[in-house]
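Colleagues,

For the teaching module next term, I've prepared a clean inverse folding example: a structure given as tokens, and then the sequence designed for it. I'd like students to try predicting residues themselves before seeing the answer, so please don't circulate the second half yet.
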């Protein structure tokens, strides 16, 4: 939106000491965001009135002409021009004298064009920044105007235009006109505000006695049209509006059209209330009372009694109207229209119809001043892709009381421009609305606390009263009545009043203080921290790729991955089936993360030689879980837990799987060792039903089973369409988190004072005996044995069938220096013990 400084001065005395730049800054700090400031005469100092003395064709260019122009200098200036403007000898028009710079940084230099000198340029309104219209236009001055005089002086280009950001006044319908904006300016400048009193007042409570014309207004839905005012006038003469009005409209980007249309635009920009004027003779079905005759398209209003109906209704589906922009628009039954007895004559609050448009022959008019529902106008404008200056204002919830003020102002200006014009109908004013004007109780002590500073009671009352609020004091409480122009959607609670006080008082006048609160670090979420730590270890250290899969699977996937024995006959005893699934592919909550990883492997196996994935997420089983803490009843939720799953896939199914199994065990060992946990792989005691025919090991930490690791057999992989050998692991994240929280904090330990002694022993034993079993036996045999490390495994023909060799570093240490005799004695006893316990024999070859 554009604001004219001269226009604002009609309603507020702005001190001369305040520059436009200072006023723009104050507007931004107190009321609205000013995007830019433009001085009308800027860069036009060397543009003057020039009179054409002679015109001749350019000798070297068919489309160029040469003019001799009198600009009140000793000699005339030669100017070369094209065909953009049609000019004649004797005409006076704006001439830019070279050298100069026009608006838009357009440089005008003395130059040669096809061998001829040009000492300036004839200027279009667009080049001077006086018009934004696409069609070229220019000023031609009266012959009495002196040659060489600056166009700044002639056109009185002494205004300053402020460009305001529309978004900053979305919640302020009172600021969509100069009158409302001036009210705010007067308040924060603390200067006098000039109330606009229209010279025209409706006599006899808005009725015209002995009227020859009757208008019947029918509002079918007062929610969509809370107020509709209409009155007819005759004796209208269409002509150009006065020069002062044209200049004001042009200054704020509005193109002057004719006196009647310009008046409606002027009042809209002044008060913020859109209005519309119809050519009265073009409204159909004007009926003679008590007669069968009809008068249509009469150019004069006779002495007979006439009647016309104006109906404010919603459109019929597929009803059409040709709007003022020449477009035929299709309407629907959600759009509000102004209609006569036959058809729509305007789209309410947005644009009038072409059939009732004002033209040069118009002598009688119907003036509409109305208020429309903001939501309805917004939806209609969007659906029709037709957003006008009028609709932009109605979208903001205008004050219904503005209708009367705008109508009075329009009639006043019409009578000023057309002295012979007269009102020929009674005023129609259909209304049904109510505004919440309070009062709001504003506790002054509470206000000071909210602001953070005590502002004098006198100052608070002064600010609110200058903004139009009515104040009644009751002890330390102000009863504040909201003015109608702020009651539509802007002010409703005490906090709104506090905001008004602060913005006018000035945010810069408030002391900046840090809030007085106790700073506490947030409570640690240990589970989330552990999850992030694990992700860092697996992604960066182990080079695995994290995936996020859906929590849903299909029944087909479940048949390949039975959760329990009952799955074999189609029952879902542990799987949870959704009552309202998204699709057939997402009917069951996942009972394991492995299903998603297998699907990922199948999708990527043709593209990657080796696939290494992991996922952290929840699984769900149809058994008793935790109690629902968010329910008032003691409801039990389905069992769910967070798990960590890892999957490795590589090579062909026919290849040896031992290497892959070692790799996934190494990754799990690396992960848990990074978390300062000791891991043990043991033979799984309870194996998931779907892993019965696969090589599977249980994962133990601190003697507690937390998961399993397995090489999937070919049948399972074939069911899932996987062509690579695949190893998987699934760890209970909840158990892992509990163990992590019990981990003792690492503390510094002094280096042992006495040396360690290492001896190596290799045992031959049954291949079914696990490494962990013999390790436990060794380390628990004597207090002198501090550590046991496996460094070699061997199986071969020399050992015999079903035998293997395990070689260990055995580290001895005590709180004294050990002797060789002590260690030899302990080892001999250890060998005999293992031979007795595990039938292990020393390997001596």
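(Answer key — instructors only)
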């Amino acid at each position: 939106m554009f604001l004219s400084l001269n226009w604002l001065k009609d309603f507020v005395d702005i001190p001369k000491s305040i520059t436009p730049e200072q006023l723009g800054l104050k507007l931004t700090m107190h009321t609205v965001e000013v995007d830019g400031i433009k001085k009308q005469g800027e860069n036009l100092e060397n543009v003057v009135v020039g009179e054409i003395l002679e015109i001749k064709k350019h000798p070297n260019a068919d489309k160029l002409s040469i003019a001799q122009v009198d600009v009140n200098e000793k000699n005339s200036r030669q100017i070369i021009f094209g065909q953009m403007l049609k000019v004649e000898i004797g005409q006076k028009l704006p001439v830019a004298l070279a050298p100069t710079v026009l608006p838009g940084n357009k440089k005008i230099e003395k130059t040669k064009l096809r061998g001829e000198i040009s000492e300036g340029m004839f200027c279009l309104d667009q080049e001077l920044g006086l018009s934004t219209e696409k069609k070229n236009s220019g000023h031609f001055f009266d012959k009495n105007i002196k040659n060489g005089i600056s166009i700044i002086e002639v056109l009185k280009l002494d205004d300053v235009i402020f460009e305001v950001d529309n978004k900053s006044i979305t919640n302020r319908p009172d600021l969509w006109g100069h009158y409302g904006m001036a009210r705010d300016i007067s308040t924060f400048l603390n200067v006098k505000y000039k109330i606009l009193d229209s010279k025209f007042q409706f006599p006899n409570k808005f009725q015209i006695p002995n009227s020859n014309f009757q208008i019947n207004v029918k509002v079918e839905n007062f929610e969509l049209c809370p107020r509709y005012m209409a009155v007819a006038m005759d004796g209208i003469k269409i002509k150009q509006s006065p020069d002062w009005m044209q200049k004001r409209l042009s200054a704020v980007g509005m193109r002057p059209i004719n006196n009647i249309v310009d008046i409606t635009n002027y009042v809209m920009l002044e008060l913020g209330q859109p209005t519309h004027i119809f050519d009265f003779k073009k409204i159909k079905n004007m009926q003679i009372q008590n007669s069968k005759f009809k008068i249509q398209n009469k150019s004069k209003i006779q002495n007979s009694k006439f009647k016309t109906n104006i109906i404010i209704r919603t459109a019929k589906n597929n009803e059409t109207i040709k709007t003022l922009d020449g477009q035929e628009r299709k309407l629907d039954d959600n759009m509000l229209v102004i209609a006569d007895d036959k058809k729509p004559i305007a789209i309410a609050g947005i644009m009038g119809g072409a059939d009732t448009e004002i033209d040069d022959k118009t002598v009688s008019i119907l003036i509409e001043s109305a208020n429309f529902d903001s939501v309805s106008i917004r939806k209609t404008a969007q659906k029709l892709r037709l957003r006008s200056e009028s609709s932009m204002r109605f979208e903001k919830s205008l004050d219904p009381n503005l209708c009367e003020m705008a109508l009075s102002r329009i009639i006043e200006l019409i009578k000023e421009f057309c002295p012979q014009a007269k009102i020929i109908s009674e005023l129609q004013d259909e209304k049904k609305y109510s505004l919440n004007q309070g009062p709001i109780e504003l506790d002054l002590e509470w206000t000071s606390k909210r602001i953070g500073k005590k502002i004098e009671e006198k100052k608070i009352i002064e600010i609110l009263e200058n903004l139009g609020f009515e104040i009644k004091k009751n002890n330390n409480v102000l009863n504040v009545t909201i003015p109608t122009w702020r009651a539509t959607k802007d002010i409703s609670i005490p906090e709104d009043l506090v905001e008004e006080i602060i913005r006018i008082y000035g945010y810069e006048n408030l002391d900046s203080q840090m809030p007085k609160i106790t700073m506490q670090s947030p409570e640690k979420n240990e589970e989330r921290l552990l999850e992030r730590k694990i992700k860092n270890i697996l992604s960066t250290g182990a080079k695995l790729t994290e995936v996020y899969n859906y929590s849903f699977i299909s029944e087909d996937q479940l048949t390949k991955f039975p959760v329990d024995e009952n799955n074999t006959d189609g029952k879902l005893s542990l799987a949870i089936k959704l009552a309202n699934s998204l699709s057939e592919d997402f009917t069951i909550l996942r009972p394991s993360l492995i299903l998603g990883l297998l699907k990922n492997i199948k999708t990527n196996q043709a593209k990657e030689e080796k696939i290494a994935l992991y996922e952290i997420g929840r699984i769900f089983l149809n058994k008793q879980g935790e109690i629902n803490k968010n329910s008032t009843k003691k409801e039990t939720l389905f069992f769910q837990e967070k798990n960590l799953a890892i999957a490795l896939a590589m090579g062909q199914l026919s290849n040896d799987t031992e290497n892959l199994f070692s790799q996934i065990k190494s990754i799990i060992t690396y992960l848990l060792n990074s978390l300062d946990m000791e891991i043990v792989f043991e033979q799984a005691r309870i194996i998931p039903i779907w892993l019965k025919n696969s090589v599977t090991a249980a994962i133990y930490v601190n003697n507690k089973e937390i998961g399993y690791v397995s090489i999937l057999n070919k049948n399972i992989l074939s069911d899932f369409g996987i062509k690579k050998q695949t190893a998987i692991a699934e760890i209970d994240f909840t158990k892992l988190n509990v163990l992590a929280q019990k981990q003792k904090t690492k503390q510094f330990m002094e280096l042992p004072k006495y040396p360690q002694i290492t001896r190596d022993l290799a045992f031959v034993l049954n291949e079914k005996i696990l490494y962990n079993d013999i390790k436990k036996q060794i380390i628990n045999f004597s207090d002198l044995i501090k550590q046991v490390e496996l460094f070699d495994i061997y199986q071969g023909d020399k050992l015999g069938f079903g035998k293997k060799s395990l070689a260990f570093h055995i580290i001895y240490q005590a709180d004294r220096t050990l002797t060789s005799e002590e260690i030899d004695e302990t080892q001999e006893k250890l060998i005999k013990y293992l031979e007795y316990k595990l039938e292990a024999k020393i390997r001596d070859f």
